[in-house]
## 1
Amino acid sequence: MNTLEALVRSFAEAHPESAAHALERLDPGEASKVLGELPASVVGPVVERLAPHAAGAILSRFTPEQTRAFLEAMPPKQAAAVLHHVEESKRGEALAGMPEQAARRLQELLKYPPETAGGMMDPQVVSLPIDLTVQEAISLLRKAPRQSLHYLYVTDRDYKLAGVLGMRELLLAAPRDRIEPLVRREIKSVRATMDREEVAALMREHRFFALPVVDADQRLMGIVKHDEVLAAVQEEAFEDLQKMVGAGGDERALAPASVAVKKRLGWLLVNLATAFLASWVISLFEHAIAKVAALAVLMPIVAGQGGNTGAQALAVVIRGLAVREIVPRAVWKILFKELAAGFLNGFAVAIVTAGAVLAWYGKPALAAVIGMAMVVNMMAASLSGAAIPLVLHALGRDPAQSSSIFMTTVTDVVGFAAFLGFALLFMRWLV
Amino acid sequence: MNTLEALVRSFAEAHPESAAHALERLDPGEASKVLGELPASVVGPVVERLAPHAAGAILSRFTPEQTRAFLEAMPPKQAAAVLHHVEESKRGEALAGMPEQAARRLQELLKYPPETAGGMMDPQVVSLPIDLTVQEAISLLRKAPRQSLHYLYVTDRDYKLAGVLGMRELLLAAPRDRIEPLVRREIKSVRATMDREEVAALMREHRFFALPVVDADQRLMGIVKHDEVLAAVQEEAFEDLQKMVGAGGDERALAPASVAVKKRLGWLLVNLATAFLASWVISLFEHAIAKVAALAVLMPIVAGQGGNTGAQALAVVIRGLAVREIVPRAVWKILFKELAAGFLNGFAVAIVTAGAVLAWYGKPALAAVIGMAMVVNMMAASLSGAAIPLVLHALGRDPAQSSSIFMTTVTDVVGFAAFLGFALLFMRWLV
């Protein structure tokens, strides 16, 4: 091993998180070459800290033997997260060579997508049979891996989750006591299929730092810990931010430009199509614009103001849906509130705009036209900004996905149509 | 007590979280009346689950005696969070009547704003002097409040943080052993002034579920727990989403329309001013538009496409800054990447746009003009979308705050100027 390699190795050993960040910025080919030189024990902690899609890209370039060695060096939870991003065929090859029990456990985990409790859980959970004594429980714990001891779950004879035992209660009890009376029975558990936003809401509400995950028969499958949820809710929130404007939810600031093209271009083209729709609306009023050039000058103000108004409603509603503040029966209340807010803000903005236009062009009719259009468009903007994510949510779609593009379609079309339409109606006072 | 009151009381007792949500939707006056009827022991858990600004508004309507009773029923951490939102004078009155030690503890906490480790910490932390035996430590723990026992921090003779003791090590050790050799010395701690995003990053990186908070002399002040951080990072992320478009970071979907006016109107007026700036740019080209009406029809396409492109870059960079993925030396790399992405996406969109315009108007020069303008504006959009949050961040300002409004100013002005400017240059082939 040369000096540089030794350096990389000691860096990766001491700072797996930073090493993971550094690797994500390399080309996957180069990154896999760097990792290929290092022993599996060093690579494991680094790979489990990579963004799963980066880890998948890197691992896809390994031989099945290498992949297997790395997967075995990782906790099953992280191994499954990485495998979700490795191609199906490569995945099968790697699993085929693993010890049967480990492979079965991974396959079990792979059934649950990463956005569910099952996908986030750690299957390495210690459970104590309920008929133990305190002494027996303690000697069982001596053999358990250290990191699995946050909560001590207790199971009954059918391996069903029976309750939880406090480390403190165990500490303070007499060795020959049975654990059964110490077990707290009222315990929250989550189904493996539960969505991660729901898990996060439950954790936040009850201030747990872990939740047991169970199958349909209440059998203990694993544990979801706070750090997984912490990472997940933050990711989710920023994914919403990015998806709202049609960037990919998982694009990272330091990804190469090619990723930014791949993730963004599709939605830019959708936006282009909607822009042409708005243009077509304008073209219907070409004669009016030819007569009064000021219309062309002023129309982007109405549309732009609508876009901003709509984006505000959009952001507030997307947040409300994500943190589960918005319950189904509140939907009408929110729509009404946004309509009212659109009217009030629209009225205030309309007065200022009309005043400025009067000062600029000295035409009261033009000021009135832009003022009326502003109120109409800001009401449409506020309403559609709230309605679009609510409708997407009701349809079972992602309420954030490109909602900003759909919303500006409404505000552009309504904005131009209202302004130019009112202008046409009052044309005789405008020329 | 009548039936309705009994109902409210049992509801608030069983579901403090839901009760808090329900109260936030009431007028603060009504909410304080409802709470005023209930005993402090029931009110405490509800008030500590209110959004702090709502709790502040409600408590401001109580008498100092009532306020004091509620504050005393709450853990100091939550009491301080609520007090941050109560007027200075009311705050003083309530504190004046409290037992001296409790008042001093609260005043200490109030020094740290809620966005810092000190503002998020729980000062009720159990610490064990390092010279205890295992037996002595256990009997000390017997007296400690249950919820404070996640980690057992150990302090030396000057009350400085010396390390942490595992509950498991304590459980497995002999009663007469000294705890000193069991103490883990390498321990991460955070200063009370550390920003909450940094605390979250540390917690995520090291997978802790709590971090000890220390003062400048390494003396233990409290503990920041995962649930505080979980709530904080999610709040922060959605605040970014809302602030980006000029809605208030703390506006909630179910707040009344008046809040939406108060939080949004200011930025809408700023947006209006920038819209007039863009209009003024258009007005410089009025003659060109009067000659070629198609220019008015097509110009919003260029501006709108720029707005969408810029918003994508904005979202990706705001996320990168918030999760601390963007380090200072990566700034130039990101700007260059966004410029490249703007060029590539711009080129692709320009080709499609030019094709569509050629099909629509049959004028190759018009198609060329819009294509060129599109490339220029999408490069400007991508660059400014990345640069605006980076500059705000470098200036120590919030990178999300209304960045979308600043960005669309650039894309509107550049979009209109580029498109109409190129049109003027090539006017002889357009008419």
## 2
Amino acid sequence: MQLISIIPGFKPKNDSRLLEKAELLKPGLYYTPYPAPTAFRVNGQEISPAEMPDRPLRRGDQVLMDFGRHIVGRFSLSLDQAGSAQDAPAYIRLNFAEISDEFGEDPKQYHGWLSSSWIQQEEMHIDILPAQVCLPRRYAFRYVLLTVLDTSLKYQLLVRGASCTGESSADETALPARTFPDDELKRIYEASLRTLAECTQLVLEDGPKRDRRLWMGDLRLQALTSYVSFRSIALIKRCLYLFAGSRFPDGRMSANVFTDKEPAADDTYLTDYALWAAPTLREYLAETDDGEALDDLLDPVLFQVDYVLEHFLTADGTVKEEAAESAFIDWSDNLDRRTALHGVLIQALEAAASLCERAGDPSRARFYRDKAEELRQTAMRLLWSEEQGCFLSGDQVSVHSQVFMILAGVMPPERASEALERAESLPGSPRMITPYMHHYYVMALLAAGQKNRAEKHLREYWGGMLRTGSDTFWESWDPSDPDGSPYGGRIVNSYCHAWSCTPAFIISRYLLSSPT
Amino acid sequence: MQLISIIPGFKPKNDSRLLEKAELLKPGLYYTPYPAPTAFRVNGQEISPAEMPDRPLRRGDQVLMDFGRHIVGRFSLSLDQAGSAQDAPAYIRLNFAEISDEFGEDPKQYHGWLSSSWIQQEEMHIDILPAQVCLPRRYAFRYVLLTVLDTSLKYQLLVRGASCTGESSADETALPARTFPDDELKRIYEASLRTLAECTQLVLEDGPKRDRRLWMGDLRLQALTSYVSFRSIALIKRCLYLFAGSRFPDGRMSANVFTDKEPAADDTYLTDYALWAAPTLREYLAETDDGEALDDLLDPVLFQVDYVLEHFLTADGTVKEEAAESAFIDWSDNLDRRTALHGVLIQALEAAASLCERAGDPSRARFYRDKAEELRQTAMRLLWSEEQGCFLSGDQVSVHSQVFMILAGVMPPERASEALERAESLPGSPRMITPYMHHYYVMALLAAGQKNRAEKHLREYWGGMLRTGSDTFWESWDPSDPDGSPYGGRIVNSYCHAWSCTPAFIISRYLLSSPT
């Protein structure tokens, strides 16, 4: 599956009133200094921080710096020279990595469909030493690898120091105190919040290494987690206004919005992402009771649901193939998405109904609720396989189909559990690839009353990423295929990714004894 | 021959009084805008400047920009994008070349003894398009090759424009009007002045591509050429003060001085370069009658001659092997340098005598003049081969030996011509590699009364560089080995080099009918 939409001549339709409000909601950033790496290795050998400043480096030498934790921000080097005079520029390469495995891959060997320009590497010449080299770009990293491409026969390079400044708009002081039954859950919770904080920038980014952009599928999960932690309320509102303020000319919401310049909807439409706008707004209002947001955003959000109802239902009341083809659901090449999308649509209809109630429009609310009920019945009639005891999508059985149907409230808990078990036990059914999908799976387990299994899965799956040595959660992780990548190469994978931040939400809301 | 001197713990001895005067003599720079390349090629195909701004560029595409002449200065690019939104950074490489042949060599394949950091190349990521990319470093180039390392599947790169700003402290308005007998001589003259102007910066640099530094061997030839052209009198004085102001602790002048920071003599001593200080000062005073310079510089300059007399003469009055080993003369691996250096020493003694006369010290002047005469007699007695009709250096016959002996006035013109012819006709004698050496060869021909041969050689040798398409003169050029390099790879050769700028001097002084 390649997610590359190109609509020739596409121009988003911008609503300046909404975008001005989004601009006013832009947060300030907190800057955190990291004055030095916590550990150095030179050519693979550990060297103490005290020895590092005087270690002469020659052509080919490599210095691995470990800052001890994932950081999003700017990087600076203090360089000097030893030996005779500097008779030629120093020439260095810097590679930045979120996890150390990234250094095992050769950037030149990446030929996948994402741009290799995301690989975090720089080459530079330093004409005059000593020099303070402050890199202007922002990086996402824990490790920095400096390679000496050349000095000269007359002199050697010295790395006197390295520092960085973390950037995030997440307010650490807003975090509630929590106690945990054990260390594993605590560590998962903390990595979850670190992941969220690193993605909490001038918008809620999907990943600070790559894309660095506002995507609806990520936004919903970030917002849910933020409500129980940093409570970046204004930023979440800003993001909703950005989606509503720059849309397709026909009113559809884009899957993502570019915000580095004048905000601009991407020409990528994902059916499920557009539908998540309604639940995301409902969840926002449950936290804030923000009447202005309801007034401004109701119509744009309901439009997303109406559009699908109008354009993407077949005569028999299931979603059309073309709508499923433009749905995300998960990074699975061989996934049939129709049934899962049907489940997402029901959830969007329920959210739409709830928004209409809040807006004082009970008749419209009833319309959406009736529609949701009708789609549930259609699902049981046309998509459910009595023989297999679970939902089909086309001929395909997948966990994905069960998960979104369970979250749509189509089945009572007991039946839901059985359907999930059937799908999971079927050999060859599509695997869940992303923490995004695993989040919905855990939510489905909880909805099916399987709290123990939910907690076990959370510990195994998210805990598995931490057991590799990472301190943030990833964009993509299939424990049975740890080297897999949706992008044709792990080197462009994002190892701190918004949609994987939800364990803190799940733990706080469902697993701790005193839920918030 | 590798020119890499490293003296552990070396610290130059600086004279702050002289260095302050040097600082006050620092020139301003003239900035010349070059608003656009004169020609573009995309993937080898010529494209009109009018079409270029709208030509979408994808991964792997290459744009060759030709600015139509050699430029030393800063480079800027105006970049934009076509297609769908820019969903990833643009990633480009820029290579700068003085001659287009440089692009035929792979920087990664250079493994010579000079630093590969001199290869003019940059890689960069542009996060947001459109962008004006202004490179902070200075380059020496006529051609710029932009390689698109990556965009993304969604967008293409556009090169809306490229421009540069030339930098030089040479005053073009000071140039005298000259008329030439033919176009060839005019073109050689102009390329010679362009070469000098490009090297005329905050100091007289050896080459703006590489080293970018003040070397005595270059300074003398630049100064001679500048007197008949830009007349950068204050800058020449500044350079002499820099050599005198930062020296070896024992008083010797370094072969070159670093001036990017607090001036600092390099720890490289070249016997002939130190000796050239006296002729260089004498020539400066012949142009300026600058009493302050004579007062300040006489002692430091005479010290260089005295040092050689004291340390580097054998009991029989010829120069020691160790002095010859630390002499430059030319980039020839197999050259025996003793006899050539003996000739340089005589010239330095004559210059020292002349400086003492000017300073009102006739007895010291006589000392140097007598010493010069004594060395001439020693040369004829011990270094001249009656049998071969020319000078030997050890057992070796070389043009180099004859040239510096002729310029030392050891032989009358007729005998000089014969000696040169003998050396040139001997198969297997060391070849002349550099325009530096060819300059002294032409001067020797003139001293031997061979004006026609001098002019013919100037047209053939320097004209040969122009016939390759270059518009500046090079650091190194042996027509019989056009791919040769003293540095183990042509890609680090300098193609605009100070010591090759002398044709304008020779033409103006010796070849034009109304010499200046």
## 3
Amino acid sequence: MKVSELGEFGLIDLIRDIVAKSQNLERASWQKTLVGIGDDAAAWQSNGHIELATTDTLVQNIHFDLRLTRWEELGWKALAVNLSDIAAMGGIPSYALLSLSLPGELEVEDMSKFINSMVHLAGEFGVAIVGGNVAAAPNVVITVTVIGYSKGKALLKRSTASPGEQIAVTGYLGLSAAGLEMLQGKIISEPETNNILRQAHLKPMPRVKEGQILVEQGVKTAIDISDGLVADLSHICESSKVNARIKIEKVPVHPVVIANFPNHKELALYGGEDYELLFTADETIIARVKQALNCPVTVIGDITKEQLPTRVTVVDSKGNSIPYRKGGWEHFKN
Amino acid sequence: MKVSELGEFGLIDLIRDIVAKSQNLERASWQKTLVGIGDDAAAWQSNGHIELATTDTLVQNIHFDLRLTRWEELGWKALAVNLSDIAAMGGIPSYALLSLSLPGELEVEDMSKFINSMVHLAGEFGVAIVGGNVAAAPNVVITVTVIGYSKGKALLKRSTASPGEQIAVTGYLGLSAAGLEMLQGKIISEPETNNILRQAHLKPMPRVKEGQILVEQGVKTAIDISDGLVADLSHICESSKVNARIKIEKVPVHPVVIANFPNHKELALYGGEDYELLFTADETIIARVKQALNCPVTVIGDITKEQLPTRVTVVDSKGNSIPYRKGGWEHFKN
């Protein structure tokens, strides 16, 4: 069988199964693994605190197109997506490693822009860039690893959602996917709108502070929206063995997207890369979170009992289920 | 200017300079950086212990050729090179992240072999594989990150060599480069020799235990041999601002390499990827290390005062300098 038939999530399951089989052989290290393969970041019981670690790779022509992306945007985004994974655990990022593979014919000046921008974003969160690796390669591949920690014992996981909980999301959705449509050719004549869309897709601001506040307010379950709202909610549902119902009219689509994109609902549901936090908790906690956060928090649905095969249902204002295409971004399938 | 004109080490210097300029902005995180860009691994002051972190990328057709390498060998090597970086700091590896980018037309069975082999090596050192990332890509790119720690406050660094110290190396050199020559077409008819060479190049065993013993015995300066003996010794010399002299007849070339490769001295000096530990210390400490280690330890020269431009001199038995080509492996230059 080919990897493309198995798909991204099938391949992750395969890796997880092989790793799980080996756990008895190396007991000490496995006992310290608090969260292993299949969450936003791994969590590890260190002396006196919980370490968090995450890594993400951007591949040229898969994750980005150098004809559409400036180097400073790429440096920013490569770090931002990893900081977002630490945010989705409710953690505090400490330091980062950069592994950069690229063709030798690239301009040194572009590399400077790339690094300067990454360092700038790192500085926003007090993150030090402490090491890494450079290598020649036929196309650009950027891997960033971020190590962080959790203040206390609490973490935001994917596996702890319960029926009856509300589902909420920070900020607005659909902006990043709309930005990509614009970069790929859709004409947006208004310069300010153009900026907002470009920034959303290429220079997302990870919700690091917000993730920590979610933990402080008692939230236990969260993920960042990278694959898309429906896809990422499905990840929570699979990990937690529950179902979820999204009320389509509640989904906070950004006004700029509504105004310029007739397919705005679709962009918000499936677009991905918004790097907002999607979380579940009971009503009281969500009310506290709304008070505590400085950004919009919108309740978009609720967690229900497990009922297979469909994990996530999207309903209209009358509660009728709306047919939708499955999932969001999946490598090897898209 | 192109990256190829700047070279691998020029690009690393550029990154280090940009990062260094930003240090005032993010004081808390920089104060905790004990060892930053430019050593085998980064070291970070955590609560009560020192964290170590390293990442390394293998790119198809740059670092490996799938026509010459089995998937199980690739899985082993991708982790081994990172464990070797932790070994070169005298640290203990704890857990690993794997970021795997690959074309969808690859066979799932090959991926299983790859992961099983990586998990096998991880088990040898009690390392847990706790997370990572998979993505589609036009060619295979494997990035492994290993996080570890140091037992006490002592570390093996590149910057602490002093004039008068001896230079020593574990094990034998040249085997890995000889293995590569064999894989690329040189005929070795003896099956056992063939095995030794193949294993040396594709399934190196990192000197993790040995690195820890070096620290215990008071060694302060070490690097693992990945770029080549002369190149890696040059890295120590540059970091420590010293020179070094290698006595060519002392370099421990493996008997199999001597017997089969007329260019054996060159393979041992420049070949690289032996993943042995190269270290410096005074005579008393080296004598203790020889007692404490179970592998061969050979003194191959000594550290001398800084005298530019040439960092490393290779001398014959009469003390006459032997001309040699500069450096070992350098990305964008080779």
